[in-house]
Amino acid sequence: MRLSRAAVLARAKAAALDGVRRLNCWGSHLTDISICRDLPNIEVITFSVNGISDLEPLHRCQNLSELYLRKNNIRSLDELFHLKALPRLRVLWLAENPCCGPDPHRYRMTVLRNLPSLQKLDNQAVTEEELSQALVDGEEITAPPARGSVENGWSESCACSTAGATAEPQSHLLSCSLEETNKTQEELHMKPVPRDKYSSFSHQETDCSCKKRNNVLNAILLLMKELDAEGLEIIQQTVTRRLQAFQKKELQEE
Questions:
Q1: Who has the most CB within 10 Å: 91, 140, 160, 216?
Q2: 53 and 72 Cβ atoms separated by less than 8 Å
Q3: How far apart, in whole angstroms, are the C-alpha atoms of residue 74 and residue 248?
Q4: Which CATH superfamily is domain 5-137 in?
């Protein structure tokens, strides 16, 4: 799916593409982000849980400081070539992509060797020691990846999950696990859900109802990011009324 101009303006609540500063397209089935070539002032992009494989459109985003690409279809670390010219990039989340490979150390060292200005990689702070070690253990990327016969597509393994996501998008894009919930929270700059709070509502539910409940929770958290102050106030008032109703019911049962 191609990310359109209209979708960008709607999500960013902007009148023109050069006015877009933050863009959240988490879990939107995207494979084509060529519109990013027309976002010169973008600062924060959230593209996690999509099917993106080509990072070339990002090379013009000179003001980009945070980029979230977790769970996509980035097959080769050579795609980092397109990010090397971004002077302000400080945060990158690239984990759970095919390019990460079986060797976490080599992966991290290669990313840091090519993007030494990063302060945080995959939700983990970058240290000076790592940057020095990356010069030894990391692989220097000097050219963009060679394009195969499939452009901006899914790998075979991702294609299977895509078919499932079409039938049940929430169950595939939104995980029931506490870890996945907190990864989403982190990408949206929200506090993680404490383990005791998370488990308190799941132990007494079946697996099916637990997954459904947490899918709804994650969806609400994502949508809240799109609301303005007025919208959040409405949510707050509704939640307060719901909580009061639950408390009243509990008192009556006692």
A1: 91
A2: yes
A3: 51
A4: Ribonuclease Inhibitor (3.80.10.10)
Structure tokens, 247: 């408390």
Compute the Cα dihedral for 108, 111, 114, 119 and give only its sign.
Answer: negative
For the segment 58-87, the average pLDDT, to the nearest whole number, is: 97
Dihedral of CA atoms 217, 222, 226, 230 in degrees, nearest 10, equals 20
pLDDT tens-place string over residues 10-53: 999 999 999 999 999 999 999 999 999 999 999 999 999 999 99
Q: Where are the alpha helices (DSSP H) in the chain?
A: 5-12, 104-114, 128-137, 156-167, 169-173, 178-187, 195-200, 207-224, 229-253
Neighbours of 49 (CB within 10 A): 27
Question: Do the strands 124-125 and 120-121 form a parallel or antiparallel pair, or are they unpaired?
Answer: antiparallel
Sign of the C-alpha dihedral computed for residues 28, 32, 35 and 41 taken in this order: positive
* Lowest mean pLDDT segment, chosen from 28-32, 74-78, 131-135, 233-237: 233-237
pTM score > 0.90 for this model? no
Phi-psi region of 40 (alpha: psi -120 to 50; beta: other; left: phi over 0): alpha
Distance CA 113, CA 107 (A): 10
Contact status, residue 33 vs residue 7, Cβ threshold 8 Å = no
